[in-house]
Amino acid sequence: QVFKLEDYKPSEFLIPETKLTFNLHPTKTLVQAELTIRTRSGQPPNAALVLDGDELVLRSLAINGKVLDAASYTATPDRLTINELPQADTFTLSIETEVAPEHNKALSGLYRSSGNYTTQCEAEGFRRITYFLDRPDVLSVYTVRLEADSKEAPLLLSNGNLVERGPVESGALDSGRHFAVWHDPFPKPSYLFALVGGDLGSIKDSFTTASGREVELGIYVEHGKEERAAYAMAALKRSMRWDEEVFGREYDLDVFNIVAVSDFNMGAMENKGLNIFNDKYVLADEATASDADYAGIEAVIAHEYFHNWTGNRITCRDWFQLCLKEGLTVFRDHEFSADQRSRAVKRIAEVRGLRAQQFPEDQGPLAHPVRPRRYREINNFYTSTVYEKGSEVVRMIRTILGAEDFRRGMDLYFERHDGDAATIEDFLRVFEEVSGRDLSQFALWYHQAGTPSVQVAMRHDADKREVTLHLEQALAPTPSESRKRLMHIPLQFGLVGQDGRDIAVKAAGEGVEGDVIHLRKRHQTIRFTDVPERPVLSINRGFSAPIMLAMEQTAEDRMFLARHDSDLFARWQALTTLYTQALTQAYRTIRGGSTPEFAPALLALVGDTARNEALEPAYRALALSLPGEGDIAREIGQTIDPDAILAARNALVLAIAAANADDFAKIYEAMAASGPFSPDAADAGRRSLRNVLLDYLSAPAGDVKRAASRYESATNMTDRAAALAVLAHRQSGSPETVAALADFESRFRPEPLVIDKWFQIQATVPGTATVNTVRELMRHSGFSIDNPNRVRSLVGTFAAANQTAFHAADGSGYKLFADAVLEVERRNPQVAARIATAFRSWRSLEPGRQDKARQALVAISQHRDLSSDLRDIVERTLA
Ligand code: ARG
Ligand code: ZN
């Protein structure tokens, strides 16, 4: 079945009130739903009531307290149709269903994780709990009564505020069961419903909102791990304050709870007042979490908290509008992290991620608009296009409007749409209204898939003292649209003078506003007058638009920008472009059977950047990080040979290391830690620079000592895991590497989240031998095909991040992966479909690999009883 945006119709029936009673039991949980149903028209119903279900077992059904006779309804596992309804605009529908949380391995709906009851309802999991109008535009006030065994589940949580709790009386006897009643006063869609029942430890804190509301904060984790939740709690409080200060948004309930579970399909979930998290995004201490983990926790805690306004108070009309809450909330969490850490470093990391994930999606068979118009399986649209590109689109709105009008637009959005299930049109309208601008061309960013490319050339005429910019935009066809319209692309820019400073520019004609060029036509020419000396063009500063930029620019000019551009993002970009050019050139040389060489000026520039103490260490670390194999592949485009890419990249690593060995060794020593561990951005930056240097210093064959000693002396997970990765990736098979891998495993055996790192590091060892390693690790006692984190770390990482092994020329990587995907699929279709997207760039490979990849995809597609999730991905990938 294909769902289409244009088919949207408001529901004939509303559910203003929902009362739920759960009798929690591992294999036989009874769910009683008492729904107040009201017709939208205010007239008696003139059609049947059709409710969504998914694998449901109906136990009983009544309307206004009267049991329905069998002739008046039909119930299947995925639908309840009631044909005979009262002749009234309002009535009460009572439904009893039975579910088995213990057997729910799809981790959607009500399931058990480490013995605890938990739920995941977005997007369509609520219908696996009871029959309902399971769509985001049906908002209801929920009252939830939970009953459970007091020993098995002393903790009973749901959305909103706790109303009542106590033992369940059964005559004079102690029933051994207890109950809790929760009430959430805010009407919400079913996807935001949540409950938790179990035995967990907790940490508590409180927060006073700007207007003086006392909020009780709780984070619930596995017993014994309470201390590891402290960083998440601090991040939560910082998020709450930041949203007040930057967006004027206050929290609105008396409690805010977060529960960490170890079996979770995604990162986390913003259920009203009861966020449920993958424990990977809650638990951290220096011994078990890396700096990247800390940053991830901060970002995800903030993201889910920010959803309280962008997602919960204002939700989505339908799932086509998913980016309305996700793109906007990612933008908000990006801004939060930028404010908490280094803005430039954060921006570079975002763009690296966007290019590594979203660009290949947007340029391959799975491309779709930020706001899709059709889907077969909505779970397959929780993509980096909807999230990350969706965030970039919001960022562009701010660039076009300026910070002030953007904030006024957001204020209007909150004021006008509080309590609504809104659309992208509603969102764009507030910005048009406050700014008086026409955003209709800009709106194409939501409607057209694909990464636009922009070509730029600059000419300087010394006699006329004029600079002319020629810009041209293009957008290739994608599966969603074969013909594209011209986009409105905001490009932040500067003309950099010989002294390294931006020159003040005077533009003749339209298209420039302050430091932003508005590219709206296919070709656009812009003249700047009164420029006596030839400047160097810096464009798409801050990555103001998510495009591919092709600029006619000499290596000398790029080196100049890499040293002097006042925009730190653009400075990093100039260096990265130089790397990319050197790497693609080396790739061709290697394919031609020769040995690549690299420009000494580039190698020197890298050394100068590493030594430049005016730049913070975290920034220098990013500047020293070469484009990944996937980035290089995208640059080459067609008939990719992953082995040659790896060889080219390694050659450049070695050349940089050889040219700068002494300096790198000195900086490596200078970056050594002093004082106690802190996860803050400054210390994390020093560690990251040090670890990047360790990788260079350990690149020459046999240079294993430094990394081995780093591994042994490490006092935190960042350094330990980095040293292990360097050993495994640079000195694979050495006795030191073998010993370190064994040590890591025995040290962290009881820590699944740490063992995930061990899986990841081994799954990304370059070369075809890793196919066997992964096959063996799938039999390791720490691996579990049922656990999404384990599957992603080992199988997912192998396919998504190991170009030379996954794309092994003999097809063995594809075969292993396809088998694993099918095995995961039988239990958890969502996770299987997600990791299967690793095939998306198969058409850009050289013919031999292409053929093998196609065979693997066809083998999956021919499997019997394929889930709609996996079928959707595989068929679109093959199309
Ligand atoms: N709304 C969640 C977030 O962005 C993601 C939940 C998606 N879950 C799913 N099964 N598709 O934080
Ligand atoms: Zn989200």
UniProtKB/TrEMBL annotation:
One Pfam family here: Peptidase_M1_N
Keywords of the record: Aminopeptidase, Hydrolase, Metal-binding, Metalloprotease, Protease, Zinc
Catalytic reaction(s) noted: Release of an N-terminal amino acid, Xaa-|-Yaa- from a peptide, amide or arylamide. Xaa is preferably Ala, but may be most amino acids including Pro (slow action). When a terminal hydrophobic residue is followed by a prolyl residue, the two may be released as an intact Xaa-Pro dipeptide
GO molecular function, one term: alanyl aminopeptidase activity
Keyword Repressor: no
CDD domains referenced in this protein's UniProt entry, alphabetically: M1_APN
EC assignment: 3.4.11.2
Peptidase M1 alanyl aminopeptidase Ig-like fold domain ranges (all copies): 450-550
Domain Aminopeptidase N-like N-terminal: 19-192
Domain (Peptidase M1 membrane alanine aminopeptidase): residue spans on this chain: 231-442
Domain of life: Bacteria
Recorded coiled-coil stretches: none
GO biological process, one term: proteolysis
Cofactors named for this entry: Zn(2+)
Family annotation (SUPFAM superfamilies): Leukotriene A4 hydrolase N-terminal domain, Metalloproteases ('zincins'), catalytic domain
Positions of transmembrane segments: none
Domain Peptidase M1 alanyl aminopeptidase C-terminal: 556-879
InterPro entries, per the entry: Aminopeptidase_N-like_N (IPR045357), Aminopeptidase_N-like_N_sf (IPR042097), PepN_Ig-like_sf (IPR038438), Peptidase_M1 (IPR001930), Peptidase_M1_dom (IPR014782), Peptidase_M1_pepN (IPR012779), Peptidase_M1_pepN_C (IPR024601), Peptidase_M1_pepN_C_sf (IPR037144)
NCBIfam families hit by this protein: pepN_proteo (TIGR02414)
Entry's family note: Belongs to the peptidase M1 family.
Name of the protein this chain belongs to: Aminopeptidase N
The species this protein was found in: Tianweitania populi
